[in-house]
Structure formats: C-alpha cells, structure tokens
C-alpha cells in the first residue's frame, strides 16, 4: 500500500529531472504543491512550457534570446565592440555581466570540446565564430572557458583560430579554482581572474 | 545588460515556488533545462499540469487519490478496519506506510488546528471524521499528529471526540524529536514511537 498514486509518482519522477533534486526532495515538492499551492504548480507548468518552446538563441552570440538578436548584440556600442569574450555557457555570460567588468561582445559556445561526448567544433558554432573573426571587426579575444581539460582544449583550438586572423588573444588568469566551473566562482575571484588575464 | 530575458526570468521566478529552491538554484535549474533538456522541461510541465488538475482526495480518508476512494479505503480488510490512524498530511501517511507497521485505515487532516491561520475543525474535515466515528466501526484511534503546539491542540480536540463515542484513543509516543515533523522522522524512530504509543 506504501505507494504514491500513479500521477503523484509521475510528478515525483519528473521533478527529479531538475538538477540536484533527489527522491526525498522531489516528493516534498510534489506533496507541497498538491497540498498547498496548486495555483503555483499550474503557473510553473505554463511558464516551463512557454520557456522551453520560445527561448531561442541569439543569432550573433548564441546566448539565450527570445528574438533574433540579444540585448548585448543589438547594443549600438557593445554589439560592434572590438573585444570579444568567449564563454562556455549562457550562465557564464550572466556571471561575467554581474561583475560589470566587461563592456564588449560575447560568443557563447554552449559547451566545450569533448570528442568522447560527440561535442566537436560544429556543435560549438566554431564555423560561425570563424566567420565573425574573419570580418576584421574583432581585434581582441578573451577566452573564458573553464579551467578544465575540455576548457583547455577549447581555448587552445580558438587561440589557433585567432592567431590565424592576427587577433590578440588572452585567457582568464587561473585564479579560478582548477577543475572548477566558472558559473560557481564568486564575483571577486572572477574579477581578479578577469583583470589578471594572460596573453595566450 | 546583466539581465535574464523576460521568459528566462519568469521561469526562474516560477521555479522558486518549489520548496527550498533559492535564486541561485532556480537559475541553475532554468539554464540547465534550457541548455540540455528541453524535452525534460516539457515533460515536467505536462505532468505538473495533469497532477495539479487531476489528483484529488479520497472521499473517505482524504489522502491523495485520482478516483473517489484510495487503495487503502477500497482494500477489503483495511478499508473497514476497527483501528484508525489520524495524520496531519498525506506525506505522513506515506511515511507510516513505509514502515509497514500499520495495517488499519487512516484519516488525513491535511493540516492541524491553527486558529490564527484560519484553520479550524471544518478545514480539517472533523465533521466528516465525527460522522465516521459515530458509525461504530472504529474502536481504536491512533493520533499521529505532529509533536508541536498545533499537533497537540489537534490531538486534544480529536481525543475528546473519541471519548464521546467511547473509542479507545492513543497518541504516538513522543520518541519523535519534540518540535519536529513526522514526515522527516527516520523509519526506526517512527517505528519506536508507533509501538510505544500511550493511551490519551
Ligand atoms: Zn547576442
Ligand atoms: Zn482513502
């Protein structure tokens, strides 16, 4: 008898798709929504559906965007900046924007090179990046990939691309904890790593 | 510029409706779903919507149920048991079922008396409970409300009701941590409290 009803069990299973949600907290979430906040549950369902369907990616920098170009790419100055910061994910872009330190443009890889997982240059939009670098507007690239094996490989690959186009390239100082992920680095460490970036 | 797009921000806000989800983890959930698992996000949206709309309550014991009566109430033996365990929530019923110790019927209050929050006897279905007790089938009531002020008040109220109908009434031994909530008590403590229950 110690079983959830089928729909409650399905809800618990679906909530476990969220990062860091184990069986016990998924159950607590399901029961709390059902018992105390069905309206909230319905609202979450609706917003989830809309976001999954309507949030796309900026055609220039590949960050999350609901139209064709994001706020930064349509900005009259930033969108044509000579300095481009290349990050692994939209979350990393957000973390850097929070520091307020950088006023150039971005390119969001949405991943890092990882041949074993089938993530190669095409998946990271590196053809698109190469085209942008070939246009001659970008004079400096700041590589902000993670200080991990995949991040190193990705940075190396892009650095070669930059050198081919005579673009100055640097990488964030490894003041970041080695093996860590940029998204979780605190703002001051990130600021330090930003200003202490080294030529590649 | 350090802003999420409107839909992403809405999604982060909606995820914070879940218990114990702060701004940082809501952002992580939103970004991860958008970047890596849109299908999972759509599935969660659909299941959420269905569960919020279709999960109702058992007409006899008030636990979560998708039909009129739950599995326990429709069970040929348990549904007519002479022993009734009264719990504050469906989560508490689930926790007791997990111990496998109890083979009677339940009544789920879906709350505890708390006049300041507007929760009185009507909200807890105590009229419905009184009718069931008046039918004469129930000979023993086990009160499993939380060891808190509200749980004490609720237990006291129901104990009076039981005495009126000459029904034997006991309450779970306070082997449970005082001030704690039944749902979070580990199985062995709960088993101990169950077998050590005292006449009320
Ligand atoms: Zn953009
Ligand atoms: Zn029932």
TrEMBL record, chains A, B:
Residue runs in coiled coils: none
Gene Ontology BP annotations: DNA recombination; DNA repair
InterPro entries, per the entry: DNA_Rcmb_RecR (IPR000093), Rcmb_RecR (IPR023627), Rcmb_RecR_Znf (IPR015967), TOPRIM_dom (IPR006171), TOPRIM_RecR (IPR034137)
Zn finger region (C4-type): 58-73
Annotated Toprim domain residues: 82-177
UniProt KW keywords: DNA damage, DNA recombination, DNA repair, Metal-binding, Zinc, Zinc-finger
UniProt-recorded Gene Ontology molecular function terms: DNA binding; zinc ion binding
Keyword flag Transcription: no
Stored CDD domains: TOPRIM_recR
Domain of life: Bacteria
Keyword Zinc-finger in record: yes
PANTHER family in alphabetical order: RECOMBINATION PROTEIN RECR (PTHR30446)
Family, similarity comment: Belongs to the RecR family.
Protein task: May play a role in DNA repair. It seems to be involved in an RecBC-independent recombinational process of DNA repair. It may act with RecF and RecO.
NCBIfam families in the cross-refs: recR
Protein name per UniProt: Recombination protein RecR
Lineage: Bacteria, Pseudomonadati, Pseudomonadota, Gammaproteobacteria, Chromatiales
Gene: recR
């Amino acid at each position: 008898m110690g079983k959830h009803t089928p729909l409650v069990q399905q809800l618990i299973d679906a909530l476990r798709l969220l990062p860091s949600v184990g069986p016990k907290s998924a159950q607590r979430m399901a029961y709390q929504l059902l018992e105390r906040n069905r309206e909230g549950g319905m609202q979450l369902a609706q917003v989830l559906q809309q976001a999954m369907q309507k949030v796309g990616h900026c055609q220039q920098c590949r960050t999350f965007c609901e139209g064709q170009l994001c706020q930064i790419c349509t900005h009259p100055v930033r969108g044509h900046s000579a300095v481009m910061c290349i990050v692994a994910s939209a979350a990393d872009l957000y973390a850097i924007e929070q520091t307020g330190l950088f006023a150039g443009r971005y390119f969001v890889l949405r991943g890092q090179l990882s041949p074993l997982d089938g993530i190669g240059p095409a998946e990271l939009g590196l053809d698109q990046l190469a085209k942008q670098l070939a246009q001659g507007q970008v004079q400096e690239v700041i590589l902000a990939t993670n200080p991990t094996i995949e991040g190193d490989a990705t940075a190396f690959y892009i650095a070669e691309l930059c050198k081919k186009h005579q673009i100055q390239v640097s990488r964030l100082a490894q003041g970041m904890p080695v093996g860590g992920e940029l998204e979780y680095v605190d703002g001051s460490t990130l600021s330090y790593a930003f200003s202490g970036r080294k030529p590649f």
